[in-house]
Design brief:
By secondary structure, the chain is mainly beta. Helix content is 12%, strand content 41%. The chain has a seven-stranded mixed β-sheet, with no helix packed on it. A five-stranded antiparallel β-sheet has the order 2-3-5-10-9, with no helix packed on it. A five-stranded mixed β-sheet has the order 14-22-23-26-25, with no helix packed on it.
Length: 397
């Protein structure tokens, strides 16, 4: 039975070069190789540049005549005439199968008959991939082995693995021929050891093949990982003070979700249940006092295991904290005293400096000036006596 196959109801040339048969110049058939996807429609075209009313014919790989000019020769509802003229004979075949693959012949009935070959390649579409090997839940630290498989590809499909959108390269790949000896079954195995960060992660198997028109097929497996709790104690204040309340929150994470937490103090039960109230994962201590000092322990448990955390409580005296946090008055007083002392010393030294550098001067008095008969004589006597006049110094103390 004869079948041809094209993806998306269109013909896809597989070879850019044309096949032709040498003959008398200007009169020979021209064909092209065709690649189609299984289940689609193929169009086979044979052209002649020059033709003196000579008939054209298409034959299948079994040498059965399909069309002779515009006359259908084989009873197959999938085969239809597209165009028939002296220069062209085109036919279409729908619902192409793998058995339609092979070499088709266009014949030009000259003397001698000239022929041209066109090879039809049929692509086998891979089936949607399936992931196997996952059983929920998986315990943290276990080795997980996942296998992705797809059948029916021609040529063999390619399988790739992704985890957190990052491709995993270290995988195993196996290709096996199917029973029809035309298509392939391919599988790929991924091995890795899981931890709590893998919980909720999507592992993707992607199948790439030329028949998929750049739209790969994918299968996804969301991981569920069980792990022991992780515990942390968070205080409501970094400096607990006497007389104030304190809330200790036990933050626990795990899968399955941990059961209600257990609070203890110094290895035993809470000493004052009326003042130490447990609400869910919180320990509320009312009106702290020195007797509350000690080591508080929070313990969380699930079906996988148990974990705990400790918090050492030291109740501080509010007055001591205020002194520690307030200004240091002794330090400030010392700084002020030093500043005052330096200022007084500076003033004293400046006064000494000014006193030592005070200028001297001479008096304008001259002996005998009072006895001069007139003013001119007194001036002359005074000027002359300035040479021998005594220096008078004046000090400011």
């Amino acid at each position: 039975m004869f079948v041809l196959f094209l993806c998306n109801l269109s013909l896809v040339p597989a070879a850019a070069s044309k096949n032709k048969v040498k003959g008398s110049q200007g009169q020979f058939p021209l064909t092209q190789n065709v690649t189609v996807v299984e289940g689609g429609t193929a169009i086979l075209t044979c052209r002649v540049d020059q033709n003196d009313n000579t008939s054209l014919q298409w034959s299948n790989p079994a040498q059965q005549t399909l069309y002779f000019d515009d006359k259908k020769a084989l009873r197959d509802n999938r085969i239809e005439l597209v165009r028939a003229s002296w220069h062209e004979l085109s036919i279409s075949v729908s619902d192409v199968s793998l058995s339609d693959e092979g070499q088709y012949t266009c014949s030009l009935f000259t003397m001698p008959v000239k022929t041209s070959k066109a090879y039809l390649t049929v692509l086998g579409v891979p089936e949607k991939p399936q992931i196997s090997g996952f059983s929920s839940p998986v315990m943290e630290g276990d080795l997980m082995q996942l296998t992705c498989k797809t059948s029916g590809s021609k040529p063999a499909a390619d399988i790739r693995w992704f985890k957190n959108d990052k491709e995993i390269k270290d995988v195993k790949y196996l290709k096996e021929e199917d029973a029809n000896r035309k298509t392939f079954t391919v599988s790929s195995t991924l091995d890795f050891r899981v931890d709590r960060s893998d919980d909720g992660v999507a592992v993707i198997c992607r199948v790439d093949h030329e028949s998929l028109n750049a739209t790969p097929q994918v299968a996804m497996q969301v991981l569920e990982i069980h792990y022991t709790p992780s515990v942390k104690i968070i205080p409501s204040t970094p400096f607990p003070q006497e007389g104030q309340p304190l809330i200790l929150t036990c933050e626990s994470k795990g899968k399955p979700l941990p059961e209600p937490v257990l609070w203890t103090k110094d290895g035993g039960e809470l000493p004052d249940p009326d003042r130490m109230v447990v609400s869910g994962r919180e320990l509320n201590i009312l009106f702290l006092n020195k007797t509350d000092n000690g080591t508080y322990r929070c313990e969380a448990t699930n079906t996988i295991g148990q974990s705990s955390a400790e918090y050492v409580l030291i109740v501080h005296d509010p007055n001591a904290l205020a002194g520690q946090n307030g200004p240091d008055h002794a330090l400030i007083g010392g700084i002020v005293a030093v500043v005052v002392f330096v200022t007084l010393c500076s003033i004293f030294l400046l006064g000494r400096y000014l006193a030592r550098h005070k200028g001297t001067y001479l008096t304008n008095e001259a002996k005998g000036a009072e006895d001069a008969p007139d003013a001119d004589t007194a001036i002359i006597n005074a000027e002359g006596s300035q040479v021998n006049a005594e220096e008078k110094k004046e000090y400011f103390i």
